[in-house]
Write the structure tokens for this entry.
Amino acid sequence: MNKFKTIEDKLGLDKFVPSHETHLKIKNEVNGKKVDQKKLVEDVLFICPAKVYTYNEEKKEAIVSFENCLECGTCRVAAPDEVEWEYPKGGFGVTFRFG
Amino acid sequence: MAEEKFDVIVVGGGPAGLSAAFVAAKAGLQVIVLERGDYCGAKNVFGGLFFTNIIRELIPDFLKDAPVERNVTKRRWSLLTQDGELAGGYKFNKFNKDPFNNSFTVLRAKFDKWFASKVEEAGAMVITGAVVDDFIYENGKIKGVKARMEDGELYADLIILADGVNSLLAKKLGLHKELAKEDAIVSVKEILALPKEKIEERFCLNGNEGVAFEYFGYAVKGAIGSGFIYTNKDTISVGIGATIKSLLEHKINPNDALEAFKNHPAILPLIRGTEQKEYSAHLIPDGGYNKISKLYTDNIMVVGDAAGFVNASLFHEGTNLAVMSGKLAGEVAIEAKNKGDFSARTLSLYEEKLRNSFVLKDLKQFRKLAKTLEKNPQIFEKYPKIFEEFVSGLFTVDGEPKWQKEKRLFFELLKKESIFGLIKTAINLRRVIL
């Protein structure tokens, strides 16, 4: 029935110039308290439209696929204390051809 | 390199920043626009409707070469249920000739790039790939900005912040608080390609006419939000938006909501057989009048989304508020330059001009929108269902006498919601959406 693309294939349509350095980070600690990365990803950062944030059960850590970031800022608003967010360097990141 | 000083630095090459730069440069001021994308528009996304009444004031013959897609003669507002639709709208032939009701579908990558070329023609410099991270202070006063690039320290008397919804710079100055989860709409959108003739056939369009379809009710799986379809020349823009708070509460990912929207029986036939071209996401500042930023301080003015200028009512206006605020900031820049005074006292004229314009008047009128929607979650799931049962019941062909049917349906409806609740919701909504 549904012949539309998956999120991975959809992101493949977009033009990205990936940087080597991430512009998105999850803090280890907030106000001296350790951030529960699994809970943060599952309860809050699931909201990312590009599904940039996943949790790796084996490594017990959050994976941040910043190279897929659409630079909307949703994670920044959803988790203002835990996510460190900046714009990618000029010339890097997503370039919308339609917009 | 010698220290270079401009009259005005505009941070951000979207409609607001470009309008400010256009007005100021046209009057002979030394203006530089710093845009972080590869070109103006490269990082910019919106639903698809550009209202051009103010841009027409700036560039009267803009239609000669502006890359607009289609002129919108047909608008429709629908209430979606899980698998049904109730709709109303208009199609006016008089909107199919100049000035085309100043309503066009637009693709921002093309449009903003074109606008930037007009700003350069007006005499401003436009530098792309320039991310501004901070300000330059001297003796506690803002003297310029620091862009993340070689020779990135730039000086000016006036800095116009047009850096969009996230506006990290306005926040850095304390002009704007962080967006609250209930005041930020995340919107996702796809560009779907379909041959021109097929679009015209499918949406019943003559020539370059276009449609704007907006979907309310159960458009985002019950979350506080809406969906849209806009026709471009040979593509269709389809998308949804919902408040971050509501998506978190409903545990819905925006992309999953978009997929559900696309597969809704009322939507799917409109986009069937298309080829997906691009997927994008963007925030919309939805706090309205009560959440707009402080609009100026010494040497600084804030315009467009950075200030929170979006009218999210049924009118769905953002770009024309952006252009208007930019235009007014440009006018104030000229005034400040003439006076040789760039202090908050002179720049307060910017807020005064905004208050006398439709920008703050409209935002004030609809100031209760976000709160009202949040306080009436029934309109996103319960009410669409009740209305569907009533209307579909009324039109079900089954031989039941009409008076008996109407009475039965009315009592069934009252079992689900009191007449008082219905009327109260209707009055509350009327006040904030139209």
Summary: Residues 302 and 328 of chain B are 11 Å apart (CA to CA).
